[in-house]
Every structure is written in structure tokens, then in C-alpha cells.
Amino acid sequence: MPATPDRPKTADTPTARPGAGGRVLVVGAGIAGLSTAWALIRRGFAVEVFEAGPVPNPRSSSHDEHRITRHAYGPFAGYARMMPEAFAAYERLFADLGARHIDERPILVLQREASDWFAASLADLGALGIAHRELSPAAIAERYPMLDATGVSAAFLSEGAGMLFPIRILTDLVVHLAGRGVVFHPHTRVEAVDQEAGTLRAGGVTHGGDAVVVAAGAWAGRLVPELRGLAVPSRQTVIYLAPPPALHDAWRAAPVIIDLGERSGTYTLPPSPGTRLKMGDHHFTRRGDPDDDRVAEAADVARLEAAARLAYRGFDRYTRLEHKICYYTVTEDESFVVKPIGARGYLQSACSGHGFKLAPLISEGVADAIAGARPRDGLESWAAGREETGGRRAA
Ligand SMILES: Cc1cc2nc3c(=O)[nH]c(=O)nc-3n(C[C@H](O)[C@H](O)[C@H](O)COP(=O)(O)OP(=O)(O)OC[C@H]3O[C@@H](n4cnc5c(N)ncnc54)[C@H](O)[C@@H]3O)c2cc1C
After folding, report:
1. Domain-ending residue, one of 288, 316, 331
2. Which among 54, 126, 182, 282 is most buried, taking Cβ atoms within 10 Å?
């Protein structure tokens, strides 16, 4: 990183230790911002994290009981190829945290109408050497008494998948980073970033750094106008459920489930210690404002409940524990927008509903670019899953 002879007046941050690489300002304490801070301190940078809400923030996309991780990636072959590295990046993170917040279990993919997603995943799993096998609809009905196999035309069960536990990961990351001198600015909404100077303004104060990373999730377009045309906030609904007692054991042993279908189109994360059974909607609404009241209305819930009635046997015997509204940004082709902006800025919008599993890997790529260990130019296509190989160095 080049020297910065003419830094603007900096806010007083006495505990920020300048690292070998300089000081980086990160906007957002979701998984993107926190794992970028983690990757940066590993490379010798001093880091300050600015967060509009509490740290971590329950309104962030990242804050939830569980997230799916998997190698099966449908038509997104580039992301499938990145997944072995993404799993390895999480292992580096877990080693630093001293805890593995992952429950490795298979993923069951159900196909109703013929889809590219199903066939492409099978091809990629074969190419990556991930163990998997196809199951007949009759086998689904027999093995999974809680599922309704009516209308399922094909299915496969794949290893190399499971559930990550975001609340635990975020919390441990915050503790880890604070212990290594990262300065947190909670309840501090950044008003503007200067991507040429590597600075930002919050509460009327300009904070100086050598680089600035905008990892502001569904709000990122407010700070980086060029994102507005590329990614829109999307209001999404999830349901947390208590199954009937007779299905308790079956659900505890269940795989993660993706149900592909025009009218179904859901994903299910089974209950495990510390988490509830959850169903989410695969369909993007591409509407809404992440600052709205997030109260689930009948219109939010209707499609998901109709899909659940197709997917689960006797869905009306389940107790609806919570309907939750969350936001992420969605791009046209579901890729991430991660790129240099200006001379000293980076945009890290790792969303489209699948960014949690890849966040530490993408963050290592951003940190490498800031450290000059990989070309800034290649970052965008790599993070969009458009490269044949990851092409990055591990720290
Ligand atoms: C319902 C749902 C299900 C999902 N399922 C999966 C899944 O199964 N697998 C998977 O891999 N991914 C999944 N995702 C996607 C994944 O959770 C997101 O890609 C990821 O959490 C995005 O992280 P982020 O850090 O970019 O954004 P966020 O977690 O939203 O963090 C951004 C932070 O920036 C802060 N901020 C915004 N503006 C400012 C500002 N001006 N100043 C200061 N702070 C600011 C916000 O308050 C927020 O805390 C899912 C997402 C949702 C919502």
C-alpha cells in the first residue's frame, strides 16, 4: 500500500494500532465487514469497524440462527468451484476463533419441474469429487416421513454441505477482533465515504484511513451510488417452526433441504442444538426498504405457507413460532458485487441470498487486494464467480 502523505484530520482513536499494512476503515459489522476485518488483521493492518446499529446487528442479513453451506450450486459453476476454498477459509476462521460453528450434514435437493439447477449441480458435484447419489421419489417418501414427495420427479443427496451458525460466528468474531485491537464504532451510521482518499464521515467527523471498505449489506447503495443500478434490496420471509412431537426425531436427523419448483421453491434448515426448524423462500421479491418496520404481513407469508403445504406432510400441524422479515440485495444474475471503487475504496456487496458461506473467502480476496497481494483488477470477476479457478493466495 502506498504511503499517504496528506491524510485529513482523523478522529481520536487511541486504541487503533497502526499495523504493518496501514489502517483500514470498514463500514458494516455483518459477516462481510467482520470477516474482512479478520482477514486484514491477519495481514498486519489496523482496522476500525463502523456499524449503524449494535455490534452485531440483529437487523443485518447475517444475523440468524443458521445458514446453508453446500457445494451444489446449480448453474453457478464458478461458485461451485470456489466452495472447496470457501470451506477452507471457514476452517482458518474457526481455528482463530477456537470454535467450529458448523454442523456438517448432507443436503437433499428435490426437483419438481425439470431444471438447470438440478442437472448442473449433479455435474459439478461429480467434477469436484463430492459424494452424492440420486434418490427416487419412493425412497424420499420412505426415508423422510415429514416430506410430501407428491410431485417430486427427481432428488439427490450430497455430502459436502451443512449449516453454519451465524449468531455464534458473528459474536465470536467480535470478541476475537476486539481482543486484537480492532476498534468498533457501534451505533455510528456512516454518512459518506471518500473512496479516493480512503476516508469516511460519521457523526460529522471525518475518519482517516489508508483504505475504506463498504460492506453495508442491503444499505450499501446509499453510500455507493453505482451499486443502485446493479443490486436492489429484496424483502424476504422466513418461518421458524415447531414440528409435531411425532416428527421431532425425524427432523433432528434430517438433511438440509432445497425444494426446487415454481410453486414450492423453498429451503429448509432442520433443528439442531441451539437452532429451530426454519423454512425460507427461494423467490426474490426485489422490493422493500431495509429500514422498514419488518412486520410480516399476510402478503409476505402467503407464498411461503402455500409452498410449505406442498413440501411438508401435514404442515398445518406445525406451530408457527415466528415469521421473520429480512433483507438482502439481489443482482440480476445473483452474483456478488465486490470491486475496487476509486483509488482507495472497495465495495463488498456479498449478497443475493447466498453470501454467508463465501464471506470469509471473499474477504480474504479483498484483504489480499488491499495488501497488494493480488491484482485489484481481477477482484470483481473472481468474486462474481466468473473465473475458472479462485486464483488467490491463502494467508
Ligand atoms: C433470510 C436469509 C437467508 C439466507 N440464507 C443464506 C444461506 O443459506 N447461505 C448463505 O450462504 N447465505 C444466505 N443468506 C445471505 C447471507 O446471509 C448474506 O449474503 C450475508 O449475511 C450478507 O452479509 P453482509 O455483511 O454483506 O451484510 P449485513 O449482514 O446486512 O451487514 C451489513 C451491515 O452494515 C451496516 N450498515 C449499513 N449501512 C451502514 C452505514 N451507513 N454505516 C454503518 N453501518 C452500516 C448494517 O447495519 C449491517 O449491520 C441469506 C440471507 C437472508 C436474509
Report:
1. 331
2. 182
CB atoms under 10 Å from CB of 299, counted, come to 9
Residue with cell 406451530: 319
Q: Which atom of ligand 1 is nearest to the CA of 216?
A: 34
Answer whether 156 contacts ligand 1 (Cβ < 6 A): no
Ligand 1 pocket, residue 326 CB under 6 Å: yes
Using DSSP's 3-state secondary structure scheme, residue 389 falls into coil
**pLDDT, tens digit (0-9, with 9 covering 90-100), for 49-79:** 999 999 999 999 999 999 999 999 999 999 9
Helix (H, G, I), strand (E, B) or coil at 98: coil
Q: Which residues contact 27 (CB under 8 A, 6 or more apart)?
A: 33, 50, 190, 193, 200, 212, 213, 214, 215, 216, 223
**354 within ligand 1 shell (Cβ under 6 A):** yes
- Grid coordinates standing for 12? 481520536
Is the CB of residue 239 less than 8 Å from the CB of residue 278?
yes
In whole angstroms, give the CA distance from residue 188 to residue 208.
Answer: 15
Could you report the per-residue pLDDT of 266-323, keeping only the tens digit for each?
999 999 999 999 999 988 999 999 999 899 999 889 999 999 999 999 999 999 999 9
Domain end marker among 290, 316, 331: 331
**Residue 344 in grid coordinates:** 482507495
Whether residue 280 has its Cβ less than 6 Å from ligand 1: yes
347, 341 contact by CB (below 8 A): yes
